[in-house]
Amino acid sequence: MQDWKHSRARCGKILNIPHRAPKKGYVMPFDSTISALNYDTHAFAQKRSAKELVEMLPKENISSFVDIGAGTGFIALEVQKRFPEAKITLLDRSDKMLQIAKSKIPDATTVNCDAENFDFAPQNFDMAIANLSVQWFKDFELFLKKILNYVKYFAFSVPLKGSFAEYLDIFNDVKIPHLHFYTQDEILHIVRDNAEIVTTKRLLMTKTYPNVIEATRHFRNIGATMPITTETQSKISAVLKSHKAPITLCYDLFLCMTRRKRLTLIHKNKSPSQSK
Questions:
Q1: Which class in CATH covers the domain with range 5-262?
Q2: CB 3.0-4.6 Å disulfide test: which of 15, 117, 186, 220 passes with 182?
Q3: Which tens digit of pLDDT belongs to each residue from 84-141?
């Protein structure tokens, strides 16, 4: 397979789709069993995003951090190199993923849970990091407000609207539900309302596959699978068989380093009577 290519060009046309994920459940199932076996081999974009995100982390010492949607632990391993004394907690919904992560970082604490419902209050983490995981959340804005109550820094990466546009276009007639991504402006608006932005970065990556079947296999190998019903199965099969031309997948990623808003102290002028 070809290596990832980095491009500043627009990758496929932008789809006219809603940007918010529905409140009720995930719209694209994450198959953790498959991804646990294949993730490290196929998660090219996730690995590149992780390296870029680690470079954006604060210079000051971090004594503890939590990796949200830790997967097989490769970003936590990179963060550990920056902060070797830090206590590490890994959250993921997949036990199989966490088992692999634990084998890489034996001293880490692993928690099998849904991060949106995890109680961060008693943990006292300095920092939280989420590498290409918050797009699976039901409500990113609500989670952002929650996590910044309990950590000083929060670093995350997320696909933007327009990612995988060429691929999603092929399945338009099948009307399969899929993840709905924010635009960069929408993400910035949400973050600015709830945090201080330390730094941001835009990362565009493309990879060409021989056909749509191979592109679909890529998504399957990193855990993203289509919600197939008896109604859509035959339509999906027909689409996969009919599109034999090469297809380019585009990851249009937004990376952001934030910190909890600092309190602004208001100094009132003393009255003449007070100054005496």
A1: alpha beta
A2: 186
A3: 999 999 999 888 889 999 999 999 999 999 999 999 988 889 999 999 999 989 899 9
